[in-house]
């Protein structure tokens, strides 16, 4: 329990939790898509020559998620790979001792049938459905297959089945002109939409497939659509600005307007290229605790049969560090 932890670890955890820091648990590294920009939560994607890699099993993942919930973590993002490709996904979710923690399922929803053929899973608080374009050619060329219509039909069906579905749009050079289509779909179905710019997960030249697209550009599009700006806040993962059009909330995350650098970033050689700042703690089937996508030298094994709460607290504390030296820095990443 959090109250039994040393004060410094407790303070860091509270700061992380209250500041919007995320806990991303990848339940599988395989995916049915192969998005050109995908960080795959710092795991190999078998579609790019990696292998299906399950260092940890379902019981381990349940134990890790439950430990986060026991600490009072606000949210667990179940991600991958494609979580719906994991046959044991529903029993895994139902086994988590989630308490007051919100469970968000990140998914491309092409395998939605696996949720639609059974009663709604009450433990899933929200499905964060990826929707980057409505154009089939872009699906084929950038996302590695699938069709826009299959995703949009699945989103509508999941909402009708009783799930809260929010949309996730990752903005890059290939789909910057498709934002209005995605917004129209959100508005037509009263769905919330979150937009973020592409986050560099490797130092490979040409990672973005063109120039990094500053999401400030979306503000102009939203203005033109009559969106009301409800305010901005600096948070773990970057400056978040919220807009509203009718019943839809649209959140734009912009690291160029401010991303968090902490003690963890001191001496980091990737600072000029960093497209995320301190954002979220990632772990999952690869058995690693990952405070940062780019700093693979700082990934550490997680011991599933050890004191999980302490391991999670230590990892968060490493990311937060001495808060008096934390700062939000601006500027486009390289
Ligand atoms: C890694 S995916 C895994 C879950 C699932 N397969 C999906 O497509 O939602 C989770 C989310 O991260 C986003 N994402 C992946 N790589 C990204 C990157 N380099 N920059 C911004 N968003 C990214 C995806 O678009 C998706 O919305």
Summary tags:
334 residues, alpha/beta, TIM Barrel, binds S-adenosylmethionine
Number of strands: 14
Q: Total domains, how many?
A: 1
Biggest sheet, strands in spatial order? 7-8-9-6-5-4-3-2-1-11
Largest sheet: 10 strands, mixed
Tell me the strand percentage band.
15-25%
Write a brief caption for the model.
With 334 residues, this protein is of the alpha/beta class. The protein has helices spanning 7-18, 58-71, 89-95, 113-116, 136-143, 148-160, 179-188, 216-224, 308-320; strands at residues 22-26, 75-79, 102-107, 126-130, 165-171, 193-197, 228-235, 238-245, 248-254, 259-261, 280-284, 288-289, 300-301, 327-329. The protein has one domain: TIM Barrel.
Written overview of the protein:
There is one protein chain. This protein is an alpha/beta fold and 334 residues long. The protein has a single domain (2-327), classed as TIM Barrel, CATH 3.20.20.70. The chain contains 9 helices and 14 strands. It has helices spanning 7-18, 58-71, 89-95, 113-116, 136-143, 148-160, 179-188, 216-224, 308-320, and strands spanning 22-26, 75-79, 102-107, 126-130, 165-171, 193-197, 228-235, 238-245, 248-254, 259-261, 280-284, 288-289, 300-301, 327-329. The protein has a 10-stranded mixed beta sheet with strand order 7-8-9-6-5-4-3-2-1-11. A hairpin with a 2-residue loop joins strand 7 and strand 8 (238-245). Helix 1 (7-18) packs across helix 9. The protein is globular. The N and C termini lie far apart (41 Å). The model has no long low-confidence stretch (mean pLDDT 96). The structure holds S-adenosylmethionine. Residues 31, 37-41, 79-80, 82, 106-108, 130, 168, 170, 196, 198-199, 201 line the site of S-adenosylmethionine. S-adenosylmethionine binds at residues 31, 37-41, 79-80, 82, 106-108, 130, 168, 170, 196, 198-199, 201.
């Amino acid at each position: 329990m959090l109250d039994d932890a040393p004060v410094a670890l407790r303070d860091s955890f509270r700061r992380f939790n209250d500041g919007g820091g995320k806990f991303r648990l990848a339940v599988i590294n395989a995916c049915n898509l192969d998005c050109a920009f995908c960080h795959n939560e710092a795991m190999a994607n078998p579609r790019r020559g990696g292998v299906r890699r399950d260092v940890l099993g379902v019981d381990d993942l349940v134990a890790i998620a439950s430990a986060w919930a026991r600490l009072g973590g606000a949210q667990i993002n179940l991600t991958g790979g494609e979580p719906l490709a994991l046959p044991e996904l529903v029993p895994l979710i139902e086994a988590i001792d989630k308490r007051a923690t919100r469970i968000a399922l990140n998914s491309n929803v092409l395998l939605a049938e696996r949720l639609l053929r059974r009663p709604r899973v009450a433990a899933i608080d929200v499905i964060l459905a990826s929707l980057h374009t409505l154009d089939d050619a872009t699906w084929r060329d950038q996302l590695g297959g699938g069709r826009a219509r299959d995703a949009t039909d699945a989103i509508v069906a999941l909402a009708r089945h009783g799930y809260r579905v929010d949309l996730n749009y990752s903005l890059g050079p290939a789909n910057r002109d498709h934002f209005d289509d995605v917004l129209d779909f959100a508005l037509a179905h009263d769905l919330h939409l979150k937009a973020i710019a592409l986050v560099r997960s490797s130092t490979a030249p040409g990672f973005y497939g063109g120039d990094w697209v500053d999401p400030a550009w979306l503000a102009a599009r939203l203005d033109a659509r009559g969106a009301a700006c409800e305010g901005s806040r600096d948070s773990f993962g970057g400056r978040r600005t919220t807009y509203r059009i009718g019943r839809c909330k649209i959140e734009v995350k912009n690291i160029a307007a401010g991303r968090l650098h902490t003690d963890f970033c001191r001496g980091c050689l990737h600072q000029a290229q960093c497209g995320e700042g301190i954002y979220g703690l990632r772990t999952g089937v690869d058995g690693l605790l990952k405070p940062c996508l780019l700093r693979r030298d700082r990934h550490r094994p997680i011991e599933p049969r050890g004191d999980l709460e302490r391991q999670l607290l230590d990892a968060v504390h490493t990311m937060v560090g001495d808060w008096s030296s934390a700062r939000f820095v601006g500027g486009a990443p390289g």
